[in-house]
Design brief:
This protein has helices spanning 3-12, 21-29, 112-121, 123-153, and strands at 31-36, 41-43, 51-57, 60-66, 70-77, 82-83, 98-101, 105-111. The protein has 162 residues and is of the alpha+beta class. The protein has a 4-stranded antiparallel sheet with strand order 1-8-3-6. It has a 4-stranded antiparallel sheet with strand order 2-7-4-5, covered by helices on one side. Helix 1 (3-12) packs across helix 2 and helix 3 (112-121) packs across helix 4.
Length: 162
């Protein structure tokens, strides 16, 4: 996919609708398409962070590893969802979860370090990107809370059939 096609794909993503043409060109210049086969690992928990991803086609499961239960899927990304969003935050330096393709998938990988650099240089771009990331983080926190409520309401091994 050339940069013109990549820019067109980026422009179709609602996450970037408020960006100017200059912003699109900058982001297209630090982006690439990633193709994953079903069950292929995109990144694993503990890896150094390099990219944030926007899922274009397919499905990607976000998993946490538990020594007792193994990999536990905590989120399934659908098209237009962001995966690896914490790579664009200033503090987190390692992946806090793993991501694996549930279906054959196509993603846009955006170099997080360069995106952060652009956001520092261009505060309008930084505001737009960080506002979007705040929405992603808030949505994931809400999902986590709902899962915790469900977990505490229905703990494993608790049977009411006795």
């Amino acid at each position: 996919m050339n940069k013109v096609e990549l820019t067109e794909v980026l422009q179709a993503i609602p996450w970037f609708q408020a960006l100017s043409d200059d912003h699109f060109q900058k982001i297209a210049g630090i982006s690439e398409v990633v193709l994953l086969s079903r069950d292929e690992l995109l990144f694993k928990q503990g890896d150094q962070q390099k990219n944030l991803y926007i899922l274009i086609e397919g499905r990607v499961g976000v998993e946490l590893y538990s020594p007792i239960r193994g990999a536990i899927r905590v989120f399934t990304a659908e098209p237009m969802d962001v995966v690896g969003w914490s790579s664009a935050t200033p503090v987190v330096r390692q992946r806090t979860a793993s991501a694996r393709a549930v279906l054959d998938s196509r993603l846009i990988a955006i170099n997080a370090a360069k995106l952060n650099q652009y956001c520092e240089q261009d505060h309008e771009l930084g505001y737009i990107v960080m506002r979007r990331l705040a929405n992603v983080a808030a949505a994931r926190l809400m999902i986590c809370r709902l899962q915790l409520v469900d977990l505490f309401a229905n703990p494993m091994g608790d049977c009411d059939n006795d």
